[in-house]
Specification:
The structure is a single chain. By secondary structure, this protein is of the alpha/beta class. It has helices at about 10-20, 25-40, 45-50, 55-70, 75-80, 100-120, 135-140, 155-165, 200-205, 210, 230-235, 255-265; strands at about 80-85, 85-90, 125-130, 145-150, 175-180, 190-195, 240-250, 270-275, 280-290. The longest helix has 21 residues, at about 100-120. It is globular, with a radius of gyration of 21 Å. The N and C termini lie far apart (about 65 Å).
Length: about 290
């Protein structure tokens, strides 16, 4: 990056050119998001002030960010944050980026959560494999009467989730707890939610570098058939649900039938499923058959 590139608009064009030259997908979007994110500029700011000079002290940081993206590090990891369901989530090495498809899970379970609150006056949630805490925190933000425990095996993820709860004013109703699924959870809950690892082990090695290198392997690898986490959750879920409690799960695009069978064998019925933004099966909601 030379001293001649001194406006945010020029920085974006330069970043786009370099990304396109290296075959970076969505080069234009990434360039705009990266530069504007580092400079703290909104879309309106870019329109109104895109031709204003950028402080020389910021140029080195922007150059470093461009180099990191050229090495296939995702934009949101470089920025250290990503928006999810209207909340800002900090990221860390031990967390997945919360992606828009996961918002479908929040959309699916939120009406059920509100119904539980209407009946009981409150609700208890557990988010298994919480990562950034995104799912649990989005539900808490939308439902003030609810409380949540975010569970993860990663201390890094738990620390990140706790910071995100604090950042979004939800820390009083959120607890981060280290556990492998239900192992350290004696409690029962009204709602169990999870976006567990569901990619087959052999497929993990074929993923784009942005995912394979920078997302934590433990949050991706679902075992030989991608279903290990669902079996573990289904095995103990019934014992951790209150009467009329529900389970909401994110799944891989081709896993609806297999995951449904796993939970049906453990006493659950599929009551709702939803597709993601690309039209693929993405979310399943289960209730225990005897409820």
């Amino acid at each position: 990056m030379t001293g001649a590139v001194v406006t945010s608009r020029d920085l974006i064009l330069e970043a786009r050119r370099r990304f396109e030259a290296e075959g970076i997908p969505d080069a234009a979007t990434d360039a705009k998001m990266l530069v504007s994110g580092i400079l703290g500029l909104s879309q309106t700011d870019l329109v109104l002030r895109g031709d204003q000079p950028v402080d020389d002290a910021l140029l080195a940081g922007i150059e470093l960010a461009i180099v990191r993206r050229l090495a296939r590090e995702p934009v949101h990891r470089i920025l250290g944050r990503r928006d999810f369901y209207g909340l800002q989530m900090g990221l860390s090495t031990g967390t997945l980026e919360p992606r828009p498809d996961t918002e479908v899970l929040v959309d699916a379970v939120l009406p059920h959560l509100r119904h539980i609150v209407a009946v009981k006056g409150s609700a208890e949630i557990v988010d298994l494999g919480t990562g950034t805490g995104a799912i649990a925190l989005a539900l808490l933000a939308e439902c003030p009467e609810a409380r949540a425990i975010g569970v993860d095996i990663s201390q890094d993820a738990l620390a990140t989730a706790a910071r995100n709860a604090e950042r979004n004013g939800l820390a009083q109703r959120f607890q981060a707890r280290q556990s492998s699924w239900f192992d350290q959870l004696p409690e029962k809950f009204d709602l169990i939610v999870s976006n567990p690892p569901y990619i087959r082990s052999d497929v993990v090695l074929t993923l784009d570098p942005e995912v394979q290198i920078f997302d934590p392997a433990a949050a991706l690898d679902g075992g030989k058939d991608g279903l290990d986490a669902y079996r573990a959750i289904a095995e103990q879920a019934l014992a951790h649900l209150h009467l009329h409690g529900l389970i909401g799960l994110e799944i891989g695009w081709d896993q609806r039938e297999a995951v449904t069978q796993i939970f049906e064998k453990k006493g659950f019925s599929l009551i709702e499923w939803r597709k993601d933004l690309g039209g693929n099966d993405r979310v399943l909601v289960f209730a225990a058959r005897h409820f």
